[in-house]
Amino acid sequence: QVQLVESGGGLVQPGGSLRLSCAVSGFTLDDYFIGWFRQAPGKEREGISCISLRDGSAYYAESVKGRFSISRDNAKSTVFLQMNTLTPEDTAIYYCAADTHLSIVAGSSPVGPAYWGQGTQVTVSS
Fold first, then answer.
1. How large is the average pLDDT for residues 95-123?
2. What is the mean pLDDT of residues 42-71?
3. Is 89's pLDDT higher than 90?
4. Which of 22, 69, 97, 120 is an S-S bond match for 79, by CB 3.0 to 4.6 Å?
C-alpha cells in the first residue's frame, strides 16, 4: 500500500524558514519521482518542485527557485523541502505526491500524480 505522509508545516514569520518532510512507503523508490505541490485559497494547485528518487535530479518552479531546496534520504524513504525566505504569498497547503512520470510530478501535465499525501498547512504571517 502506497503511503505519503507530510509533516513540518506551521506558522512562520515573513523571511523565516521551514522544512517539510514527506515519508514514503509501499513502492520501489528508484522507479518514482516525488513532487511538492501547493494550493492557496482561491488559487489553482501549483507544482513547485520535484526530485528523482533514482539519482536526485531536482527541478523547481520559477516562483520558488533560489529559495526552496528539495532533497531525499532514500535510506529513510523521506523527501525534504527546505523553504527559506518565506513570504505571505507562500501561504498554502503543501502536498507531496508520487508518480513514475517526471512531467506529472513537475505539474506540467493535466494528469495529476498517482499518489498523494494528506497535506500540511504552511502559514507565513507576522
1. 91
2. 95
3. yes
4. 22
In angstroms, the CA 118 to CA 7 distance is: 10
Q: What is the DSSP letter of 67?
A: T
Contact 47, 105 (CB under 8 A): yes
With CA atoms as reference, report the closest residue to 118 among 12, 23, 42: 23
Radius of gyration of the chain (CA): 13
What residues does 25 pair with on adjacent strands? 3
C-alpha span between 5 and 3 (Å, rounded): 7
Residue 19 cell numbers, joined: 522544512
Query: Distance (Å, rounded) from C-alpha 14 to C-alpha 11?
Result: 10
Whose grid coordinates read 513540518? 8
Cell of 92: 498554502
Task: pLDDT band for 121, please (50, 70, 90 cuts).
Answer: very high
For CA atoms 5, 74, 84, 43, the dihedral sign is negative
